[in-house]
Amino acid sequence: MAFLQKLVFLLTLLSCLVGLGSAAPLRARPRDPPPPAITPVPLRLTAQQDSFNFDLSTTLVLPTSTMQPLQTVPPHCAMYNSLQSECPTSFEAVNVTYDDCGDAWTVCRCSTANMTMDTAVERLGRIPVGLRRYVATVVVAPDTQTHAYTLTSGDIHMFGDTQVDSWVHEAGHAYDWATGSPLSGTPEWQKAIDSDTCVPDTYSATSAGEDFAQMTVMKVYSLIHENSLPEGWSLDCMSHQMDYMNGLPVFNKAELFGNTCAIAGSDPSSRHSTPPPVTPTRVQPDFPAQVQPNSPLKSGLAAVEDKGEKTPTNKDSAALSTYITDVKSVLFAGGAVLGWLMW
Ligand SMILES: *[C@@H]1O[C@H](CO)[C@@H](O)[C@H](O)[C@H]1NC(C)=O
Ligand SMILES: *[C@@H]1O[C@H](CO)[C@@H](O)[C@H](O)[C@H]1NC(C)=O
Predict the structure, then answer these.
(1) Closest ligand 2 atom number to CA of residue 161
(2) Which of 31, 81, 192, 283 has most Cβ atoms within 10 angstroms of its Cβ?
(3) At what angle do helices 239-246 and 208-223 cross, to 10 degrees?
(4) What is the rounded distance in angstroms from the CA atom of residue 221 to the CA atom of residue 245?
C-alpha cells in the first residue's frame, strides 16, 4: 500500500519534470535573462568612458523594407508570452524583407512594447547587412528599463527603447557566437585584451564577450568616420583589440555595406544569405573624422547627458548553462524522491 502511494507520487513527480523539461529554464526566472553562455570574467582594463554617448541612427543607411504579417507567432517567440515572462499580453509577428536580402527576418513585437514595430524594423535595418545577416529572430518587449540580450541561437531580445548602437552591439554578439564557438573566447582575442590597457567603456569591462560587442560598435563607427573613433576615445590603449577587429572578415567595408546578404565565400554560419532579387545601389556615406582631444582618457567631454537609457545590459545566453540548471533540478528532485522512498 505504502509502496503504491510512493509509486503514484514518483510518477506524478516524473510527469511534472517531463512537462517542465522543455520550458522550465526559461520560465523559472522569467524576468531575468537566461544564464550567460560563459561565466563573465570582468576585464581588469581601464574604461575610457562611462558609456557610449554617440548614436549611429542618423549615420547608418536605411534599406527599404516590406512587412508580411505572420498568422502564427513562431514558437521561439510564443514561449515568452505569459504573465510572468517577457510579454504579458500578446505578440504580433511579421517577416521583414529588406531590399538587400532575399530572405526575411522574423520580428515578434509584444503589444505593450515601448518600440513600435516600425521603429524596431528601422533599427534592425540600420545594422549593416554584413553584420545583420547573423541575426536570427528579434523579440521586442516592454520594460521600465532599456536593455537587451542575445541568445547563442542568434535571437535578439530587446526591451524598452534600445538605440541603434545597442542593435549593432547585439548583432556583434550574434556574429561572435555564429559558429557556436565564440570568437571572444579565442586565445587571439584574449591576447589582444592582455596587450592593451583600456576598453571602450565601463560595460566593455564586464567580460571578453561584452568587450567584443562594444568593439564591434566602435569598429562600425570608425568604418564610416574615416577610420577615426568618436570624440573622447583614443586608439592607443586599445589598439590590439582594434587590430583584432580589423582582421575579421565581417568588417570588410565593401561587403559589410555591400547591399547584399549574399556575400561571396560567405561563411555557413550566416543566418541570411539569399541574394536580393535586385541588389540596391545605395552607398553608405562617409562622415568626417572627429577631432580628437589631447587627453582622451580624461577629456571631460564625456559628460554629455547620459540618460541611462543607453547603457545596455546585454547578456549572452546558452543552452549549455540552461542544461546545467536542468540537471541540477533533476538531481534535486531525484534526491527528494530517494528520501521519500527510503522514509
Ligand atoms: C519568415 O521568415 C523566416 C526566416 O527567414 C522563414 O523561415 C519563414 O519561412 C518565413 N515565413 C513565411 C510565412 O514566409
Ligand atoms: C516603457 O513604457 C512603459 C509604459 O508606458 C513605461 O512605464 C516605461 O518607463 C517605458 N520604458 C522605457 C525604457 O522608456
Answers:
(1) 13
(2) 192
(3) 70
(4) 12
Domain boundaries, given as residue ranges, for the chain: 2-32+323-342, 46-317
What is the full per-residue pLDDT of the chain (343 aa) written as tens digits?
Answer: 455 455 444 433 333 333 333 322 223 334 566 778 888 899 999 999 999 998 899 999 999 999 999 999 999 999 999 999 999 999 999 999 999 999 999 999 999 999 999 999 999 999 999 999 999 999 999 999 999 999 999 999 999 999 999 999 999 999 999 999 999 999 999 999 999 999 999 999 999 999 999 999 999 999 999 999 999 999 999 999 999 999 999 999 999 999 999 998 767 899 999 999 999 999 999 999 976 554 443 333 322 222 333 333 333 333 222 222 233 333 444 444 444 545 4
Is residue 95 a contact partner of residue 106, using CB atoms and an 8 Å limit? yes
- Of 89, 114, 307, best ligand 2 pocket probe by most atoms within 8 Å of the beta carbon: 114
Quote the ligand 2 centre to 165 CA distance (angstroms). Answer: 20
Cβ–ligand 1 distance for 101 under 6 Å, the answer no
Write the residue with the smallest CA distance to atom 14 of ligand 1.
Answer: 95
